[in-house]
Amino acid sequence: MKPSDRPGLRHLKASDLRAGVQLATQATTGIIGITEGVHQAVLRSAGGRAATQPGRTSGVTGLVYRSVRATTHWVGRGLDRLLETLLPFIESSQSDTAEREAVLSALNGVLGDHLVATGNALALPMQLRHAGVPLPLSQSATELAMPAAALPHVVILIHGLCMNDRQWSFAGHDHGAFLAESLGATPLYLRYNSGLHVSDNGAQLAEMLEHLVAQWPVDLQTITLVGHSMGGLLARSAHHTATHAGHLWPARLRHMVFLGSPHHGAPLERAGSWVDEVLGHMPLVSRFTAPFAKVGQVRSAGITDLRYGHLLDSDWQGREKYRRACDTRTSVPLPDGVKCFAVAATLAGRRSLLAERLTGDGLVPLNSALGIHGDPRRKLAFPRSHQLVVHGAGHLELLGSRAVAQQMAAWLLAGDATAT
């Protein structure tokens, strides 16, 4: 069997291998640091001499760890230079496969901020795509080269954490294609690095939509934003940023639809931060568990934003990413003059009110998806006729639900149709 025929390898590019070597080198160095931290904790408990740096050993032991780090660094650099030399000769010109893009999207969701900070080629850039092709938006262009599909109404679909634009096609259904046909609109799909802060992605999207309005081949009269999960937070963040920046596109925004968006956070992320807190600060055993707490902190800025539903820079700036804290985010209401709709799912049956409140869709609580909050100042004012609860469904099943697609089309066509 040739290497290119092995399962998984045929989806990789040479540039993926080079970026993977860089990431593996950094991961190996991190594991060495964790191991040395445990070693030093054991030495301290046995009465050994403390090192000058926290989590570092001294003497011959420290020399060994420093040597291993140096070797890892130089081996990584050597492989990187070799791959850089070979890259022009072995890089594939084939289109990206769905499998490769799914892996990259998941990796970006978990480590996307780290990939950007280290200049890793696996970091995904933000793109607006039509029929799988990125739109060549730029600050210098005056008009966008688009086929006859350019219509005065665009529906922009924004995926969730660890996903990408291709995954709007779910269980043989695509909300974008359905809404485009129902509304007479052009569907555009956003692809972005979901590991970055929601506010950073929101600012990028706000600028991108401003360029879209300026360069769209026909007069762009109506914009509809449809966000699944984190994508809904991104849409709200982009609108807030654009409004304060004086952008033109918010005046064309008519509708926002949120599918399972954690407007008030997701408890699974908060549970993860509590585990970090326990491992890192338990009395007596903390000297042994603290080094391992770093493993639980392999969560991107985007994931930690889901703790309470952060939308703005001020929600996270100056705060330690993993430390447990109260909900201090700035309240951002739904935009005035924009018809907003919320779709929530629950794994519970239709007659189990308590269960549906407790379980939600498996990831997002029902109240969070509907914008309901105990503090009236944080509550999002979705009219009852603009809410839909799907029973017996999970978070991802919202993507493949034809019933959800039909309700969205009814809302967007009639504006105030009553949810069923």
Shape: globular
Helical content band: 40-55%
DSSP helical segment count: 13
Could you tell me the radius of gyration in angstroms? 24 Å
Q: Could you state the order of secondary-structure elements as H and E?
A: HHHEEEEEHEHEHEHHHHEHHEH
Chain-averaged pLDDT = 77
Class based on secondary structure composition and strand pairing:
alpha/beta
Number of beta strands: 10
> Which residue ranges are poorly predicted, with pLDDT under 50 across at least 5 consecutive positions?
1-9, 27-32, 34-43, 82-94, 277-293, 416-420
Range of strand content: 5-15%
Brief digest:
The protein is 45% helix and 12% strand. The protein contains 13 helices and 10 strands.
Plain-language structure description:
The protein is built from 13 helices and ten strands. The chain is of the alpha/beta class. It has two domains: 3-94; 127-265 and 330-414, 3-Layer(aba) Sandwich (Rossmann fold). It has an eight-stranded mixed sheet, sandwiched between helices. A two-stranded antiparallel sheet has the order 4-5. α1 (14-45) runs antiparallel to α2, α1 runs antiparallel to α8 (286-296) and α4 (175-183) packs parallel to α13 (402-414). It starts with 13 loop residues before the first helix and ends in a 6-residue tail after the last helix.
Present the secondary structure layout.
Blueprint: H1 14-45, H2 59-90, H3 98-117, E1 127-130, E2 133-134, E3 153-158, E4 169-170, E5 173-174, H4 175-183, E6 186-191, H5 198-215, E7 222-228, H6 230-245, E8 253-259, H7 267-281, H8 286-296, H9 301-305, H10 313-316, E9 339-346, H11 353-359, H12 366-370, E10 387-391, H13 402-414
Parallel strand pairs: 3-6, 3-7, 7-8, 8-9, 9-10
Antiparallel strand pairs: 1-2, 1-6, 4-5
